[in-house]
User: Fold these one by one.
Assistant:
Number 1:
Amino acid sequence: MDSLNPENPPAVVESPPKRRVWRFWGTALWGVFAFAAMFVGQITVVGYVVLRKGAGISFEEAIRAAASDGTTIAMSVIMGLPAVVAALWLAIRFTATPFGDYLALRWTSWKNFLIGVIGLVSVLVAWELLSDLIGHESSPGFMSDVVKSAHGGGGLWLLMFAFCVAAPISEEFFARGFLYRGWSETPLGPVGATILSSLAWTSLHLQYQWYFFAEVFTLGLWFGYLRYRSGSIWLTIVLHGLNNLGAVLQTIWLVRHG
């Protein structure tokens, strides 16, 4: 019997290393680090433009000029993408989980995509109806100013790429990818992780008024549910991009016909 023969010991089956994720505080602290990296990447562009435009005008005037320039904002948003990806890669590097697995970089079924589109349209229509009911503007004034500036400076296509591609990827990697993954594996569970990551995502939109904070938070809850349902953030990235594309096109229409 080979199992009793010292010259033929039984094969030892090694269990694969247990994959782990950052828990609540680890996720929160690395999330702050990723947010800071995104901010540095974005503010670097603004700082460069301010230094270039600062000659002959005050520092405050240069800041206002950079903050209202559509091309500058587009480049700022784009530069935030590699910064946040690098920060998250570093955070995930300390775990035993592959980067793509950690952030749920996998596609899902067309059924989930259809459900996501229907839900997204429903949320947007509900907010549009509410805006009409209470007489509130349906598009943030910030968006109108940025689109006007980008259109006048020839940077409209760059702005659309920034808002519809770069921003969805960086924000979804951050919120529904990293934050949700870590917090969902704590006592918060998927529900708590969805709410908390949606709040964190909403905090990235400080340029909006309180009314639009509520709309962004609602969208965050829907995207969080889709993240839980599908196990994919490619789905939320695509829907996030479609949402932003609709917002940009709506703003362009209002600017031209308003």
Number 2:
Amino acid sequence: MTVTSDTGAADDGGSVEYEGPPPARFAYERHTWKEIAYLLSGLPSAIVGFVYTVFMVATGVGLSVTVVGLPLLALGLAGSRQLGRWERLRARGLLGVRVEEPSPLARHGGGEGFFGRVWAGLKDPVAWRSVLYGVIRLPLAVVGFTVTLAGLFVLWPVLPYVVRGMANVDRALVRSLLSPSDELERRIAELESDRGVVVDTAAADLRRIERDLHDGAQARLVALAMGLGLAKEKLLEDPDAAAAMVDEAHGEVKLALQELRDLARGIHPAVLTDRGLDAALSSVASRCTVPVQVTVELAARPAEAIEGIAYFTVSELLQNVSKHARAARASVDVWRNDDRLLIQVQDDGRGGASAESGSGMAGLAERLGAVDGLFVVDSPPGGPTVVTAELPWRDRIPGA
């Protein structure tokens, strides 16, 4: 982990990053005074944390034979979480230690309701590490406070070195016990972020479908109903006009059906469900404005969700080729490599495509990232453009 610290800053106030503790300086600069403030304020903070931790654990364990013991222990652990957060803030402000915040309390596997929350709190590794920190911190804080206070009057010439050494011990303790050291915690935090992307994408798709129905097929069907009503009124008095109206309505029906087919294809095309990626991507390629060679080498079909994401990724990339690339030809290759589904779309166009924020490519990258996928764009000015996407391979459920 790279820890950013301002304790090694240059004279102009800049900051540098250290892989480990920053070097000591024989000077009473602002970084040294911050460390002195940290060590002097550490004793009251450590006393509060130690007393709270011992009282909380003793009370919760002692009452665990009753119905209130375990809920009290879970509540106490939640408080230890907050004490750990305070210590991270103190270390960040005075020692320059940058550590990520642990993920929120996960309730997966704990069940729902009150007992689920209690069980999740009792299993919380972040809270238990904060408890351990609260116990270990007190003796270190006593030593740090005593030596620093005495050093201000006795060890003045070498105090910066002494303070730096004791502060580095605290830095190591914060990083080891109060940072999200568990890979699972980091993964949960990523999934929390990705879930928001999925929800926003789904909401945008629903709005698009609603807009297409309202402005397209629904409007045509309303016009069709009005036209047939007028034709019915004219049927006896002017059969020729009525026949012309019915003929016009017939044309409107065809257009409405085509729009509904296009909309259904945009939701989930029937050819993908019935025949798989090879046929579905060939159908998409046939609608591209440039010739596209499609090669799909899959011995089996992936899960429906992965297959759908792959289809719509290629579909959007080929739309970009049609609209922006000015290419003469393009190709689509799909294959499996171990537990990954790989997609590569190439064109010989003008290049310059980017996955930066705000572009359509960025939206694709977010969607793939939300399902643990990857999205890489290689598009130098002048071309060619090569877009590579990876998705996790998930086996298709039999019968699906």
